């Protein structure tokens, strides 16, 4: 059974006599690219890297130790052996007397290491190593999914349509200024998406860009069209050509977050057992989940805040300040005076301070007064529109994407 994701790049074995009779065009190849031809049959070994293996140790399992050392040294020129990871598939072809013919190892989702034996200028057999990109295909497809009793979240709905969580996270990021997929989604909501899907040897290898999407939520219709600006940067715009980028994100966490306690001026405190104002949105999320800044700003403080545990406080424009409490850790460079960008990681979810479980307490002030972050986010104005000079180009792109959404077409291209 062929190990997943490993491509074949074979060398032909033959006798000395038969090699001499082959096409004379082989004589014109550069000596360093001439394949080493052996007179023995070969066997193929396909397996996965075991735990705690080294590259040389892995090779020594299959070929003589001195040859394994030579091959390892050749590989070091293009691959760091410390990057060898357990469970990565590899393929090794050797002659029956243990001589290496070729070796291939998956490096990551995009590339693999290939080592083949070739003759150098002197005619000696030497290993030649290179990093080779996988051949991939990118397909443009569209799907529709609905929130129903059997699929009560965006992720569940997309999984029901045959896709996975990564597509849901990408969709949530596009609409994060208008829709909090942890709190706003309800039964009957519908999603349509045109997106790029990447495959490698027929198997799923990831997603490309979302090209367009429609979300029907609580009686409103939200549209996103991907369009590149004059400087080559891509953004998402509604049907009227207004940017979906808002001054504030709806939520400071990934889609996995869920609201466990809302903004409430009289809530029974889970620890103290008394009724008191809860002027925040609590998001339940796994310990260590990334927390991001909801807007551009300057860090006012990053440190211990008593019952709030590890807290980051950020000052934004127009009188806003955001607070992030109970963090388990702070983001790199997050300290008083540091500038942060919208979506930049500022910390990780924790349970420091007065907390019963891992969660994020997110608060927002406007001109010194606590405000409901969910309500305030809805009041944010739409982003900048498409310039008039590019309006016709945008409308053509928009109409094409909307047509794909309605017809659910499918095309493919190869990388």
Structural class: alpha+beta
The assigned CATH architecture of the largest domain is Roll
Helix share, percent:
10-25%
Number of strands: 23
- Subunit organisation of the chains: single chain
Q: What is the overall silhouette?
A: globular
**DSSP strand (E) fraction?**
35-45%
Number of domains: 3
User: Rg, please?
Assistant: 28 Å
CATH class of the largest domain: Alpha Beta
> What is the helix/strand order?
HEHHEEEEEHHEEEEEEEEEEEEEEEEHHE
Largest sheet: 10 strands, antiparallel
- CA-to-CA gap between the ends? 26 Å
Q: Tell me the number of helical segments per DSSP (H or I, 4 or more residues long).
A: 7
CATH topology heading of the largest domain: Nuclear Transport Factor 2, Chain: A
- Mean pLDDT level: 84
């Amino acid at each position: 059974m062929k190990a997943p994701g490993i491509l074949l790049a074979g060398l032909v074995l033959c006798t000395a006599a038969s090699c001499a009779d082959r096409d004379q065009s082989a004589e014109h190849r550069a000596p360093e690219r001439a394949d080493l031809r052996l007179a023995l049959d070969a066997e193929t070994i396909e397996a996965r890297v075991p735990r705690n293996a080294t590259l040389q140790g892995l090779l020594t399992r299959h070929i003589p130790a001195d040859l394994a050392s030579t091959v390892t040294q050749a590989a070091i020129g293009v691959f760091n052996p410390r990057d060898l990871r357990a469970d990565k598939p590899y393929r090794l072809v050797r002659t029956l007397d243990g001589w290496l013919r070729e070796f291939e190892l998956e490096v990551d989702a995009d590339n693999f290491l290939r080592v083949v034996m070739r003759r150098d200028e002197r005619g000696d057999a030497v290993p030649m190593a290179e990093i080779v990109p996988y051949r991939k295909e990118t397909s443009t497809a569209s799907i529709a999914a609905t929130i129903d009793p059997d699929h009560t979240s965006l992720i569940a709905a997309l999984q029901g349509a045959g896709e996975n969580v990564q597509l849901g996270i990408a969709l949530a990021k596009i609409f994060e200024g208008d829709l909090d997929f942890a709190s706003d989604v309800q039964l009957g909501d519908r999603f349509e998406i045109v997106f790029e899907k990447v495959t490698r040897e027929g198997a799923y290898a990831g997603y490309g860009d979302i090209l367009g999407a429609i979300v029907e939520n609580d009686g409103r219709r939200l549209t996103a069209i991907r369009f590149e600006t004059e400087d080559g940067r891509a953004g998402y715009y509604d049907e009227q050509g207004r940017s979906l980028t808002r001054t504030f994100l709806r939520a400071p966490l990934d889609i996995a977050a869920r609201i466990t306690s809302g903004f409430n001026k009289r809530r029974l405190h889970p620890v103290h057992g008394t009724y008191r104002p809860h002027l925040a949105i609590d998001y339940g999320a796994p310990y260590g989940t990334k927390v991001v800044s909801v807007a551009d700003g300057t860090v006012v403080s990053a440190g211990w805040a008593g019952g709030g545990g590890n807290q980051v406080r950020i000052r934004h424009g127009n009188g806003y300040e955001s607070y992030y409490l109970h963090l388990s850790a702070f983001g790199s460079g997050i300290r008083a005076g540091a500038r942060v960008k919208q979506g930049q990681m500022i910390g990780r979810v924790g349970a420091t301070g007065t907390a019963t479980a891992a969660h994020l307490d997110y608060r927002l002030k406007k001109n010194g007064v606590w405000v409901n972050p969910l309500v305030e986010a809805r009041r944010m104005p739409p982003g900048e529109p498409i310039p008039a000079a590019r309006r016709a180009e945008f409308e053509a792109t928009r109409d094409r994407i909307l047509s794909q959404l309605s017809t659910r077409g499918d095309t493919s291209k190869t990388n």
